């Protein structure tokens, strides 16, 4: 999985796995969350927006099933 650096005060990086429709977001604290059944076009929209945090609050938070992941587990998988 390839992480993309983001210009965001909330999310330093994101990754997307189209085959699994899964979005991964890394917070500044290092915490990682995965968002399931996340449409590819919505990922593109997220990347294109000027404010990732605002987009997240309006279009992602509480709208997708999500999981909290250990950064250490994710590091071992990449």
Short description:
This protein is of the alpha+beta class. Helix content is 31%, strand content 26%. The protein has one domain.
Structure, described:
- 31% of the residues lie in helices and 26% in strands.
- The chain has one domain.
- It has a 5-stranded antiparallel sheet.
- It is α+β, with helices and mostly antiparallel strands and 78 residues long.
- It is built from 3 helices and 5 strands.
- A hairpin with a 4-residue loop joins β2 (13-17) and β3 (22-26).
- The radius of gyration is 11 Å and the shape is globular.
Shape: globular
Characterize the largest beta sheet: strand count, sense, and whether it forms a barrel.
Answer: 5 strands, antiparallel
Task: Please give the number of β-strands.
Answer: 5
Sketch the topology as an H/E string, one letter per element: EEEEHHEH
Termini separation (Å)?
Answer: 6 Å
Give the spatial strand order of the biggest sheet.
1-2-3-4-5
For the record, the count of structural domains works out to 1
Global mean pLDDT: 92
- SS element count, helices: 3
Strand percentage: 25-35%
Give start-end ranges of low-pLDDT stretches: none
Structural class comes to alpha+beta
Residues in helices, as a percent range: 25-40%
Please state the CA-atom Rg, rounded to the nearest Å: 11 Å
Write the layout of secondary structure elements.
Elements: E1 4-5, E2 13-17, E3 22-26, E4 32-35, H1 40-48, H2 52-59, E5 66-69, H3 71-77
Antiparallel strand pairs: 1-2, 2-3, 3-4, 4-5
Task: Offer a few descriptive terms.
78 residues, alpha+beta, 31% helix, globular
């Amino acid at each position: 999985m390839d992480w993309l650096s983001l210009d965001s005060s909330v999310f330093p990086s994101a990754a997307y796995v189209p085959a699994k429709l899964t979005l991964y977001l890394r917070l500044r604290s290092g915490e990682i969350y995965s968002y399931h059944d996340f449409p590819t076009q919505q990922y593109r929209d997220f990347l294109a927006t000027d404010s990732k945090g605002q987009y997240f609050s309006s279009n992602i938070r509480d709208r997708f099933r999500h999981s909290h992941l250990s950064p250490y587990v994710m590091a071992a998988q990449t």
